[in-house]
Amino acid sequence: MFLVSNTLKVQSESLDSILKSNLKPILIVIISIVFISLLLFRNFFFKSTYLLKSFGELSIEPEIAFTNNKPTFLEFYAEWCEVCKEMAPQVSAFKDEYEKDINFVFLNVDNQKWGHYIKKFDVNGIPQVNLFDKKGNLVSTFIGKQDEMKIRESINNLEKEEKPYEAIINAEFSNIQENKNNEFSPRSHG
């Protein structure tokens, strides 16, 4: 009995020493694989965040959009907005598909520069998409997460006849809180 116990103890100590000596290289390999995977697939993992950050760069200036005789897709968004992130690939696909015929304007609600547009279009939740005909008349407003087909149908109708104004509100949106000083800053939203 004593011999079996000692043998097991020696095997256990041997196994422990092997694990201790090999644990560090194993951990290094695992961490390396995770790090390399994140680098290689960063666009996949962070695509929505990347798209939101690029919206401002891809945007036409609102003043130009409302005067160039093309319909306009205007989205109010924030980089911290989870619903905005969720809808970003869909909005990016719309832009890729329709940008030849429609202006795409993206205004980050955290940028003070757009404060007058936020007030003008009564933005109180994001994402908010406003669709304008080629004369600059507001045709539709979508607030919150929207079905792709509903937005696509409204975009397709922009080129056709003018329709009366339509507001579509979904319960999934991020609130913009009222700033008591009527000043806009990143801390005044959300």
Helix-strand blueprint:
Blueprint lengths: L1 H39 L1 H4 L1 H12 L3 H4 L6 E6 L4 H17 L4 E6 L6 H6 L4 E2 L1 E5 L5 E6 L4 H12 L6 E4 L4 E2 L15
Helix pairs in contact: 3-5
Summarize the structure.
The protein has 7 helices and 7 strands. By secondary structure, the protein is α/β, with parallel strands linked by helices. The strands form 2 sheets. The chain has a 5-stranded mixed β-sheet with strand order 2-1-4-5-6. A two-stranded antiparallel ribbon has the order 3-7.
Could you please describe the fold and organization of this structure?
- The protein has 190 residues and is α/β, with parallel strands linked by helices.
- The chain folds into two domains: 39 residues; 142 residues, Glutaredoxin.
- 49% of the residues lie in helices and 16% in strands.
- The chain contains seven helices and seven strands.
- The strands form two sheets. A five-stranded mixed β-sheet has the order 2-1-4-5-6. A two-stranded antiparallel sheet has the order 3-7.
- The longest helix is centred in the first third of the chain and has 39 residues.
- The protein is elongated and about 80 Å long.
- It starts with a helix and ends in a 15-residue tail after the last strand.
- The C terminus is likely disordered.
- Name the shape in a single word: elongated
Mean pLDDT: 76
Please identify which CATH superfamily of the largest domain we are dealing with: Glutaredoxin
The biggest sheet, with number of strands, parallel, antiparallel or mixed sense and barrel status, is: 5 strands, mixed
Order of neighbouring strands in the sheet with most strands = 2-1-4-5-6
Distance between the termini: 70 Å
Tell me roughly what share of residues is in helical segments. Answer: 40-55%
Instruction: Look at the helices and sheets and give the structural class.
Output: alpha/beta
- Reading the helices and strands in chain order gives HHHHEHEHEEEHEE
Number of helices: 7
Beta-strand residue percentage = 15-25%
